[in-house]
Amino acid sequence: MYSEDELLFRNFQQLKSYKLDDEKSSTTTSREQQKTETSVEKCFDRFEELQSSHPRLTQFFRLEHQYYLDAMLRRLPSNYECLDSSRPWCVYWILQAAQLLSFNFDDETLDRVVQFLSKCRAPTGGFGGGPGQFAHLAPTYAAVNSLCIIGTKNAYRAIDRPTLVQFLFSVRQPDGSFRLHVDGETDVRGAYCAISCAKLLNLPELVMKELFTGTGDWIAKCQTYEGGFGGAPELEAHGGYTFCGIAGLALLNEAHKCNKKALLHWTLLRQMSYEGGFQGRTNKLVDGCYSFWVGATIPITQATLSGGDKEMEHTLFDVEALQEYILICCQKQNGGLIDKPGKPQDLYHTCYTLSGVSIAQHSESASCPQVLGDTINELLPTHPLFNIPPKSVAAAISHFNNSNDTDFASPSDSTCRGVSEQDS
Question: What is the average pLDDT across 373-401?
């Protein structure tokens, strides 16, 4: 017997009526969608046939995912050479996924991770994609998140706040936008990464004001006629950029500067009726990573609409269908998670599919999670604005609050003044 509150798997036979009808007008887009739906249908059919005799089909393959993450942290395979400039990202994806699965690495391993990330710190401030590489906002965000997840004194010490602030000012533009690196491209990812790092490191209020004057206005200009956010003004709405836009505005307490109702409408339309997962753009395919990018955007937007002063009564997207898609279609039996059926596992999708499930389970109430399938499937919560554990956010902010008096003598000291003069 199921209780009234227990989440149920959908009726897969009835779901077939939600598959795409191309109205006898086949296009490249419709053919790709039908191909994806066919691969998902095979997963659903297999699940129906074997569910009663193979109870593990309703579970996350926790041990296999843990073995996968452990192996990848110790030695990346050769096909990850293309991510040589994203090595702090690999670390972050592994640590975050492991946290969600309640898997902790031993202290010696984490000390080695801290040592490696310290080598990625650039002399000019911030972190590069690997030792000796130029500072870049994206790996800086990944490194700061990783070190805050580890949360030891050595980890916090590996973040040099004064020089990191210098780096943030060096990539800040006069209109409040941020380049991803010195002389690099400008997009909403840069703004979000800068805001997230600054908030986690609990920069003094006057430094924050100087650093992010105009940033909220610039982010708001990235919202499109559809309701989502593009990477920069006048670009197409995209799930990843949309998360960066609303999360950045929420962290700055400036969500009122965007059209929140249009944003919520656009994000809700990204959940696929048949597959259950999210697409990242209009008329695109389902992709497991948007379980977080879009899945987290919805409760963030709901919270800003309600003023954030009360617990959310009901999450507006289908949390059952999302978990169902990840459980049935996105797990590899030898560990790791994927974009969609037929794709290989990778660290990026392992992190963001699990993060999306965590959002689905905990967005309404951390004390009464909405878990589909076996109770073993409950993941630990993640903070929707930072995508690290809430306890890591609180610990980092508390730690750096005690460092403000020694790191920043005043908002107009040489640390801030020398770099902010570049804007004038």
Answer: 96
Task: Give pLDDT, residue 308.
Answer: 59
Residue 423 known to be catalytic? no
Catalytic residue flag (residue 287): yes
Nearest CA to 374 out of 80, 77, 58 is that of: 58
| 142 to 19, 120, 146: CA distances (angstroms) | 38, 11, 6
Report the distance separating Cα 205 and Cα 121, nearest Å: 25
Q: Catalytic one among 287, 329, 348, 352? A: 287
383 labelled catalytic: no
User: One-letter amino acid identity for 54?
Assistant: H
pLDDT of residue 402: 80
Question: Is 346 a known active-site residue?
Answer: yes
Q: Is 290 a catalytic residue?
A: yes
- Residue 126's Cβ-side half-sphere holds a number of Cα atoms within 13 Å equal to 27
Query: 270 catalytic, yes or no?
Result: no
Q: Where are the alpha helices (DSSP H) in 151-288?
A: 153-157, 161-171, 188-200, 205-212, 215-220, 239-251, 260-268
User: Cα–Cα distance between 250 and 279 in angstroms, integer?
Assistant: 23
Catalytic residue, chosen from 284, 332, 343, 391, is 284
pLDDT at 201 over 60: yes
Q: Is the pLDDT of residue 294 over 70?
A: yes
